[in-house]
Amino acid sequence: MADPMTPAEWRAALRAEGVTFVELEGWTTRGRDAATGKPFGPVHGSLNHHTGGTNSLRVIAYDGQSSALPAPLAHGWLPKSGVVTLVSCHRANHAGLAALNSYQAILDEKPIPKPDKASGTVDGNDALYGLEVENLGNGTDLYTRAQYETWVRWNAAICRHHDWSEGSVAGHLETSVEGKPDPAGPVEGYGRRGRFTFTMAQLRADVRERLAHAPGWSPPTAEEAPTMTPAYVNLGLVHSYNLAVGDWDAVQFTQEWNDEAGDHTPDSPVFVQGVARFQGTLSLRFEGLPEGAVVQVRQSEYEGSTLKQDHPITEVIGTAGGTYGTVPLVNRIAAGRSMRIRLFNQSGEDVEVASAVLKALVWKES
Ligand SMILES: [Zn+2]
């Protein structure tokens, strides 16, 4: 036995759930209870509709659809702004006759079967809250993000107040014995989800997700989590080469195992171009470098073929039986600049660069 929400309960439930709303004059007294002699309640569910029109508030609140179907036609009206208008908290003409089989499933919070008139009918207006969501219902008119967000919150507010599950949320198309098609249509997005097609199953899933959180919860949005996937660059040498004494000499990476950043060509010493951040290592092996002698290594920035900036030097010191060195590569390179690795042989003898393997993750910036 659930009494319909009072105006104070409506306000508290909607505010707690983060529903933005305005109160239409007279909403706390407007209703069909006196005219029909059938007071609203006890309530058993939340029924959802689309209006099939534009600027529908006047019809819903005042004019009604016809003399046979006088206003109010819903408890709330939800336009594209996402700000719901409270129209009535009493009996409203929105549900019409509901098939008993689907109505019973809503009461039991069970999966709703196809409405079957032969199972019997009940007056849905006795027991169901009604929300009219503004949409042409032509299959192309979009429910806005703001509208769908409020839509989920409205249904969650009702369920939370009555301690119902999402199983108490239904669509007119699930109860109507006259073949009503609403609600339907494309939705602009919700949370991290982009455009999708409205279904009652999805609405119920979104209400269920809300109910699992505190009422003030908001679904995470895509904007909060930009992800940048780095490109992988892995370069090396096809053949060893001779590094003469003196003079800075750029490493030509002739082997390209990976170049996801796309900045390298096998005939160029450039391994990355701006704008980018990168992090990696350069592993070197020298033959013929005398014990204790030094090869200096540095990153150098170029514009075209013009040297613009040198970065600090790392020294690789000769050891007996071949020399190994690992140089960390961490840098940011600006627009129009490219990066090379340069070596300087400080020993008194020619040295063989037996291997030079560069591995880096590159975050390109636009
Ligand atoms: Zn409807």
List the helices and strands and how they pair.
Layout: H1 7-16, E1 21-23, H2 33-36, E2 45-50, H3 57-63, E3 76-78, E4 84-86, E5 97-99, H4 100-108, E6 121-123, E7 128-133, H5 145-162, E8 169-171, H6 172-175, E9 186-187, E10 196-197, H7 200-211, E11 231-236, E12 241-243, E13 248-250, E14 255-259, E15 272-273, E16 276-287, E17 294-303, E18 306-310, E19 314-317, E20 323-333, E21 338-345, E22 351-364
Helix pairs in contact: 1-5, 5-7
The structure holds zinc ion.
Description:
With 366 residues, the chain is α+β, with helices and mostly antiparallel strands. The protein has two domains: 7-224, Peptidoglycan recognition protein-like (Lysozyme-like); 231-364, Jelly Rolls (Sandwich), CATH 2.60.120. It is 17% helix and 32% strand. It contains seven helices and 22 strands. It has helices at residues 7-16, 33-36, 57-63, 100-108, 145-162, 172-175, 200-211; strands at residues 21-23, 45-50, 76-78, 84-86, 97-99, 121-123, 128-133, 169-171, 186-187, 196-197, 231-236, 241-243, 248-250, 255-259, 272-273, 276-287, 294-303, 306-310, 314-317, 323-333, 338-345, 351-364. Strands 1-4-3-7-2-8 form a six-stranded mixed β-sheet. Strands 11, 12, 14, 16, 20 and 22 form a six-stranded antiparallel β-sheet that branches. Strand 17 (294-303) and strand 18 (306-310) form a beta hairpin. Helix 1 packs across helix 5 and helix 5 (145-162) crosses helix 7. The longest helix has 18 residues, at 145-162. The model has no long low-confidence stretch (mean pLDDT 95). The chain binds zinc ion.
